Amino acid sequence: MNDDKQTDGGTGNAWTDTVVVNDVDGGPSAELGGEGSWTLSTDDAYTMTDDGIEFTDDNASGTITYWDGSEIDFSNIETINWNYG
Question: Which residue range is the domain that position 14 belongs to?
Fold first, then answer.
C-alpha cells in the first residue's frame, strides 16, 4: 500500500466528507488477516451499509489500518466507502 496518511474533512455541514478504501475484500474486519483486509478504530458510532459506513454524528475521527500495516488517520469525516479488490 502507501506510506501512512492523514486526512481531515474540515468543519462545516455543506459537504459530505468521505474516505474511499480501495482494493479491499469488503467492510472492516475485527482483526487484520490476509491481503484485502482492513480494520477501523473509532470511538464514533456508525451504521454499516452494503458498501460503506455512515457515521451517526458529523466529523468522526479514527484510524483505518490495512493488511500491510499502513494506516490512514482521519478526522471530520461523515462516511467511509469501499471498492472491492
Answer: 5-84
